[in-house]
Amino acid sequence: MATLILFDEYIKYQLDGTIDLDTDSFKMALTNTLPVAATDTVFTDITEITAENGYTAGGDALTSVTLEESGAGTGIWVWSFADQTWTASGGSFGPYQYVVIYDDTPTSPADPLVGYADRGSAATTNNGNSFTVDIGANGVIRVQEA
């Protein structure tokens, strides 16, 4: 996965308990409009692509979400989840350039944003093809105690 850019409010939401990386449910969605880390705070601030042909409104739930220490006593905590794949069926979906992660659990505020990644250029996934976000071995967020 490309570098995750955290939304400015994400840190506040995590520190005040709005977002719980350990227990909440998270989703990944697609957009072709550049998110604004400084001012976008909840999922309704994002201009999502049209739901069609294998892409569902609101994106897809993340699976195998983990928050764990990278090794006993390292003090490095890693938040990760399984790769996310969308497959076009019955036509194409897109264009999209950005993947957005948000917390689907809180209700106040509803659906706070975590971060987004830029795939580099706009793409459309054609019928029968897939788009996969490869999380990689290092996870999505790594935090090390000072």
Task: Give an account of the 3D structure.
The chain is mainly beta and 146 residues long. The protein has one domain. 5% of the residues lie in helices and 38% in strands. The strands form 3 sheets. A 5-stranded antiparallel sheet has the order 1-8-7-2-3. The longest helix is centred in the N-terminal third of the chain and has 8 residues. The model has no long low-confidence stretch (mean pLDDT 94).
List the main descriptive attributes of the protein structure presented here:
10 strands, single chain, 1 helix, globular, mainly beta, 146 residues, 5-stranded antiparallel β-sheet
Characterize this entry briefly.
The protein is mainly beta and 146 residues long.
Order of helices and strands, N to C?
EHEEEEEEEEE
Q: What's the gyration radius in Å?
A: 15 Å
Q: How many structural domains are formed by the residues?
A: 1
Instruction: Work out the helix count.
Output: 1
SS-based class: mainly beta
Uncertain spans, ≥5 residues at pLDDT below 50? Answer: none
Approximate helicity band:
under 10%
Termini separation comes to 26 Å
Mean pLDDT: 94
SSE map:
Elements: E1 5-6, H1 8-15, E2 26-31, E3 60-61, E4 66-69, E5 76-80, E6 84-87, E7 93-103, E8 113-125, E9 130-133, E10 141-144
Antiparallel strand pairs: 1-8, 2-3, 2-7, 4-5, 5-10, 6-9, 7-8
